[in-house]
Amino acid sequence: MIELDRSRPLWPQVAAIIRERIEKGEYAAGERIPPVLALVDEFGVTQVTVRKAIKALRDDHWIRTEIGMGSYVLTAEEREAFSE
Q: How far, in Å, CA of 53 to CA of 70, rounded?
């Protein structure tokens, strides 16, 4: 389980770790990130916390979510399209 700073809000910490993994290529463009329940287990947080982190990543154009399918890492081109 990943240790988080429990004195600060957890969802931004989870989002930052996932974003870092994307930047390092651990989660490649087009690849599905682990499901919510797997992230809950990995981080030792609630589903609400993971869902907030995923929403933040989606709002910042790091991932896209397909209902019933999961969340996928956006390509650099897809991210750039949002910044134009």
A: 14
